[in-house]
Design a protein that fits this description.
Order of helices and strands: HEHEHEHEEHEHEHEHEEHHEH
Oligomer: single chain
Structural class: alpha/beta
Radius of gyration: 23 Å
Distance between the termini: 81 Å
Strand order of the largest sheet: 2-1-3-10-4-11
Number of helices: 11
Helix content: 40-55%
Length: 325
């Protein structure tokens, strides 16, 4: 028996076809091609070293390569700035450093940390120390501070970014200790380390990039810029122990553009979590003196929103103190 092709039947057939097409698209495997991960720091720095290892390990899980795209400068926000323009299909991701939550209050930016990202996974944190060349005249923080007090504005301190977290914290340290430093911005920690070794700056807050130079006898930490003493250098006091209540809290993670399919977020999250816990990742973090600071997608988003609120208060406080324009 033949049925007439009524308008209702045609619409039903069209709807069924669209549903089948959508279902096929949803069922398509992910990823089917390499993923680009934007790293907002120069190649060779601690973030780059760790992310290259993680990309290799996560790529094995995903069955596709994860290609790092280094975009240093702009206070570490180049990855975040690329997200609003990227397609939310999971093939373009970015590393988000702590400066992403501060930058909207300092400069005009093309993103909003509250709405522009699909937060995927928090990875690690840095362990910073105040670093000098091995033959520097200062042996302790007290030596360094005494000299800085005698020569206001003459001690050159390098840091990544004009308003990166290490730079901001050193401004806070100077204000707390009534010291005036000459702050010199660089694109990445590797550049800062080379500037110390070359004698172009006197000191810098440096994380894991300093460790191999310390072990080679070319650099020293004067004090740790951490809340507590670290296992690797148990005899080194923190600034907090010496009356300066300041430390660097600077974790980083991976996010994609807003609106990513939750299923794809989970695929990327699971691959990077497995990579983070791999022996290769653990070795690199140990070499860089970095702790694992894992957070899942929901907790990472909550952390980001809380950080956004904290950084607003911080920037307001620094502006009132005349430390920010």
């Amino acid at each position: 028996m033949k049925f007439p092709l009524t308008r209702r039947r045609l619409l039903s057939a069209a709807t069924a076809t669209l549903a089948l097409g959508a279902g096929a698209a949803m069922a398509a495997p992910f990823p089917e091609r390499p993923i680009t991960l934007i790293v907002p720091y120069a190649a060779g720095g601690p973030t780059d070293q760790h992310l290259r290892t993680l990309a290799d390990e996560a790529g094995k899980v995903l069955g596709q390569a994860i290609v790092l795209d280094n975009r240093p400068g702009a206070n570490g926000i180049n990855g975040a700035a690329a997200m609003p323009r990227a397609t939310a299909d999971g093939y373009t991701l970015a590393v988000l450093p702590a400066s992403v939550y501060r930058e909207p209050y300092v400069n005009k930016v093309a993103f909003d940390p509250a709405t522009s990202f699909s937060y995927i996974v928090m990875l690690s944190d840095y362990t910073f120390g105040l670093t000098v060349k091995a033959d520097a005249p200062w042996k302790t923080w007290k030596d360094f501070a005494a000299d800085a007090a005698k020569r206001p504005g003459r001690i050159n301190i390098g840091a990544t970014g004009a308003v990166g977290t290490p730079r901001i914290v050193m401004d806070e340290v100077g204000a707390m200790a009534n010291l005036q430093f000459n702050m010199v911005p660089y694109k990445g920690d590797a550049d800062v380390a080379n500037a110390i070794l070359g004698g172009h700056i006197d000191a810098a807050p440096l994380s894991g990039v300093a460790v191999p130079h310390i072990e080679a006898g070319k650099m020293r930490y004067l004090a740790m810029l951490t809340p507590k003493r670290v296992k690797r250098y148990p005899d080194l006091p923190t600034l907090k122990e010496q009356g300066i209540d300041a430390f660097i809290d600077s974790p980083y993670g991976i996010a994609g553009p807003a609106g990513m399919d939750p299923a794809r977020v989970k695929v990327v999250h699971d691959a990077f979590r497995k990579a983070l816990e791999s022996p290769a990742s653990q070795r690199v973090m140990d070499q860089l003196n970095q702790p694992m600071n894992y957070m899942g997608s929901d907790d990472y988003r909550k952390y980001a929103l809380a950080s956004l609120a904290r950084e607003k208060d911080r920037v307001d406080r620094l502006r009132k103190a005349g430390l920010l324009d």
